[in-house]
Amino acid sequence: MTNEGLVIKGKGSGIIDESLASLNTVKRDYLAEYDTAMEEDKYPLVRRWMKEEPLPFFKQLREERPVLVTPECTLLASSTDVKEALQLPNIFTTRLYQTKMGVTDTDPGYMTAHDDNALHHREKSIMKAMLNRVHIPLQDEHLLQLKMITPCD
Question: Which InterPro entries does the annotation name (predicted)?
């Protein structure tokens, strides 16, 4: 596959090859674009980059600005920061998103709508009981990665 003079050889799905190629082409300065954008355009830019160019966007965040404060949310790009935030549910709470996740007086909503409480642990235990024990560490890592971007979706 050729991408702006870059040749990628080997087996692949095409999608992965394109993502890898985009990492190795001319480097786009997302943070410079973000910093010069109008305030109302900043969050839409971030959402677009997360959807269309997540690998190079998060690579630059990890290297240059692992905590990005936007008008709508704060993104954590460092694995260490994400893990720490997930371990501190009283500080990094999900309460702000409970209405979006269907939490009402009569409906507890989704497991991810709850901080470190009994319902969260019960639902997580049920979910883990259905998984192959060998895959649980992989699932936990995957869930950490998903939660890293959940607040901005």
Answer: Cyt_P450_sf
The Cβ-side half-sphere exposure at 38, using a 13 Å CA radius, reads 2
- Answer whether residue 43 shows pLDDT above 90: yes
Residue bearing tokens 């410079």: 32
Residue 10 region, left (φ>0) first, then alpha (ψ -120 to 50), else beta? left
Please tell me the distance from the alpha carbon of residue 151 to that of residue 96, in angstroms, as a whole number: 9
How many angstroms separate the most distant Cα atoms in the chain?
58
| Residue in the block written with tokens 């371990």 | 87
Q: In 1-153, where does DSSP find H-type helix?
A: 15-24, 30-36, 39-52, 54-64, 79-86, 118-130, 136-149
pTM for the model: 0.51
CA angle (145, 25, 33) in 5-degree steps: 70
Query: What's the chain's Rg over C-alpha atoms?
Result: 19
Instruction: Report the chain's mean pLDDT, rounded to a whole number.
Output: 72
Task: Choose the most confident range, by mean pLDDT, from 9-18, 35-44, 131-140.
Answer: 35-44
